Amino acid sequence: MKALIEELIRQNIPLTLDVGTVKKVSGDTCHVESLTTEKDFFKCRLNAIEKNGSNYLKCTPKVNSTVVFGIFKDTEKAIIVSTSEVEAIEYKIGETFFKIDESGFVVKKGSENLGTILGDLMDEVNKIVVLYGNNINKVEVAAIKQRLKGVLKE
Fold first, then answer.
1. Of the candidates 67, 116, 120, 150, which lies 20 to 30 Å from 2 by C-alpha distance?
2. H or E stretch including 114?
3. Superfamily covering domain 2-94
4. CATH 2.40.50.140 in the chain, residue ranges
5. Which domain of life does this protein belong to (predicted)?
6. In what helix (H) or strand (E) does residue 68 lie, and over which residues does it extend?
7. What DSSP string describes 24-43?
């Protein structure tokens, strides 16, 4: 009787939700193992489409994290709906790109990178020579540049 009810539900609902564990992440897809059926979904999408275009928001789940995922009716295709832990977040609109992960931030506009720009600014500040008064503390400016590199990736 249970199998009959499950089959009726599967036939009438276009997407079935399940809970699973992320085994591997590769690009815009991941391998998820269902916690309810132990079935593997090797190309579970992270977004609505498999290949992201010029505008997208992508949340990459951590390996071994728990996810809620949807399985499309009559297919082996699946999509991540929610995740318990995030490895990285990427956001791209046109030529503007933002990424955050454990190691820091990347902020780009076209070929320009905010981390590189701020590093270049610090290098130019270190070149300033003051005729009257105190010169720039080059050691302190170099330390600030290192702190920036710890947050902003190039």
1. 67
2. helix 114-125
3. Nucleic acid-binding proteins (2.40.50.140)
4. 2-94
5. Bacteria
6. strand 66-72
7. EEETTEEEEEETTT--EEEE
